[in-house]
Amino acid sequence: MPTAYARCYDPAGARYGIPTFPWEFAPDGYATRRQLRARGLRPGGQEVAAQVMRTSARRKAGVSVAFLYRVDRALPVRPMTSRKWGALALAMLARRTCRECGVVYSYCIPVSLGMCVLCADAEAQHAP
Prior knowledge:
Elements: E1 20-22, E2 30-31, H1 33-38, E3 41-42, E4 50-55, E5 63-70, E6 75-76, H2 82-96, H3 117-126
Parallel strand pairs: 1-4
Antiparallel strand pairs: 2-5, 3-6, 4-5
């Protein structure tokens, strides 16, 4: 393995406390949360089994880390109930409703404005 991966390769877990592998070099049987969800699974309360790491100029620490879970210990995703669907629909309705004028839009209101664009423009014109 090239020396560029030496910092990110610790299969015994001596340096970081859990097995660490370079990005895209994790062994079979491990998956991230997103990969588990794509398979219809969830971690199910298990501890993080390993991690994948890569150097990153964007991160303050200089590395990006993704935690891995064991696929054989993962549980199926709980099915959505009618109550959960209803709660999700109400939450999305609240995100699409302007607090100022009460109009329901077909898109989510920008969080940065806290109101619809029309109300934000009107408020900006009235401000000195």
